[in-house]
Amino acid sequence: MTVVDQPAGARPHLLASPSGTGEVDPPPDRVLMKGNEAIAEAAVAAGCDAYFGYPITPQAELLEWMARRMPEEGRVFVQAESELAAINMALGASAAGARVLVSSSSPGISLMAEAMSYMAGSRLPVVLVNVMRGGPGLGSIGAAQGDYLQATKGHGHGDYKVPVLAPSSISEAIDLVRDSFILAERYRTPVILLADGILGQAMEPVAPTFQRLEKSTPDWILEGAAGRPPRVLKSLHLQPEALEEHDLALQAVYERIAANEQRWAGEQLDDAEIVLVAYGTAARVARTAVERARAEGMPAGLFRPITLWPYPAQALRDAARGARAVLAVEMSAGQMVEDVRLALEGAVPVYHHGRMGGMVPSPDGVVDAMRQAWAMSQESGR
Amino acid sequence: MTAAEPITEQEGRTIYRRPLLLSNPTTYCPGCGHGIVHRLLAEVLEELDLGAKTILVGSVGCSVFAYDFLALDSVESPHGRAAAVATGVKRYRPDKVVLTYQGDGDLAAIGTAEIVHAAARGERFTVIFVNNGIYGMTGGQMAPTTLAGQKTTSSPRGRDVQSQGYPLPVTEMLSLLPGVQYAARASVCDPGHVGKAKQAIKRAFEIQLEGKGFSIVEVLSTCPVGWGLTPSESMERLRDTVMTAYPVGTFVDRPRGIAPKLPQPGSPNRSITEGF
To answer: Which fold is adopted by the domain A266-379?
Structure first.
């Protein structure tokens, strides 16, 4: 699969002349884009064939952008009657060979769990964007990270995993949309792009160059059984022996993904004695907290997982090798911290600082939590 | 799949030829109507020469096995979601022929939202809706289509409409929607009705080929095991009791001017009843 730069001029709606003279201005280095719209346009640029969605805050602009752009490109857009229907339309389009994007926010993602399990079982690629909001239940429309366990540990029923990519800026979200399609097609699997309400709603300057993805015609898609035996895409295998064989094949795919697709980023880790671990919007706060801590003389660093599954456990172990304490910072009661503990296996004391319900940790709050973690790790004899 | 060898005069005249799209002998219970409906589908698709461009969207229930017996490219759906899955297939590949094959538990209970909205959007695929008034695969529980008073494993004293609701006439309901180009109800109770069922199925696919909109054929069928009857008793009950509650016939064939005489939403005069 090759990645090709698509010239920004191909999308004049992104680059409307601000002068109003009608003259074409030279393409700017940066344009200001809202996260939801940038994710949508990145998918359009990457060659998304079909989009299915349902309105929900804080991702509605993504649906609206696609409502305008997909018909412009002669591609499929359907506003479904529910998130259930949206993801099942995606299932059908994917089975027919389409590159498909679906988006929603937390309550809608719960409704999509059923079909995600079917798609994992039937080996059907799709990219699902979750612009997370506060929960449980209807919760709030504020940004949260309470769906980490849902995305990485389960979501639907049965033994399956899906790659989960977590951007922490709008620029990164644009890149990860393209990468999500690559992973989905490379491994024939659903992929979750896990964003949050701040990433969806905020505007940031982004480079107006989006990347296009080449597309091949796989040998498993449905197009009518002309001159060959029929193909059946299904998750049903009634004989236990047959299902176990199918499940083992799925697990082998997950092992390949875990071995090859872990991603992370580190900042100021070389001499870090206290390591923050955070993803998404929480990582933006953590970065500021690291700077403030360093200004106070506390040698802090940031480890930022980009794939939440597969979790970059070995990289975290390496990053935390010289640390006295590790502090997970999340917009949840403490979900990713479980993976941090699993990765470190007790080698370093692990602490957690989180806010919930649409509240976002403040840099000063994180620095306070670092001081406490630091003190506790000293008391524990390390 | 290869084309059948032509049969020469010396070999004789073909009285019966198994449709090429029927791939395996079915494993349905004796007296079950699914085998008949599969055969009609196979015959129609073969007569219209559509087998090589058709995509079957399966469902959940005994109907899930359709892809084991029909030699068609197929995709499975979660329970009730076939109309949404078919929407995705057909929107991306409008050049293909797409059908769902669904039972009444699947379509008329858990899948009501999906079927109604696919019909409302006028999706250009065909629905084969096999209605035996019961959840067959799970052991004969009450379905939305179960007749009033009918005993099932979850209505052991007979369906009490006061507490368990009234039978749901889905095809009549869908007939009100302008996106529905063709809606008919047929039956497999005897050879005459089987022939009419085939005509309805054929017409539904012709409508799809014309790209006009949504088409649905409800086929009233049997479940001898779930009903607690022999195969022949089941066919008698289908004819004498079920078809009285669910009349067969064409409800909508818009290209031929058959449609309910009701004002359509959006038309200038939306008043249905007089006196308001």
So the answer is: Rossmann fold (3.40.50)
